[in-house]
Design brief:
The protein is mainly α. It has a domain of 40 residues. The protein contains two helices and two strands; from the N terminus they run αββα. It has a two-stranded antiparallel sheet. A hairpin with a 2-residue loop joins β1 and β2. The longest helix is centred in the C-terminal third of the chain and has 31 residues.
Length: 91
């Protein structure tokens, strides 16, 4: 399943997974998706990013949102000023 963050999985899986020690195998866990047997290879401690790392991630996130909004605005502007003809026989 890869790396799983606490509180970012099904409660049934989280309850079993985060009580296991490295190398332990869980009992059978039932979820709406079926039955699972879990094991933990390694625990990765949570890390708090530095202010510089967090600032850059936030800046990139805001930039992506602004770019997306600018693109949507441009498409709307182009559609409003366009003379569109749909040739159904060519579809």
């Amino acid at each position: 399943m890869g790396t799983i963050e606490k509180d970012k999985t099904l409660p049934e899986l989280g309850n079993a997974l985060f009580t296991l020690k490295e190398g332990e195998i869980s009992e059978i866990v039932k979820t709406p998706f079926g039955f699972h047997i879990l094991t933990v290879d390694t625990h990765i401690p949570a890390e708090t990013p530095s202010l510089e790392e967090a600032t850059e991630k936030i800046r990139a996130f805001i930039l992506r949102r602004k770019e997306g909004q600018a693109f949507a605005d441009m498409v709307n502007t182009l559609q409003k000023g366009a003379d569109i003809t749909i040739f159904k026989e060519r579809l």
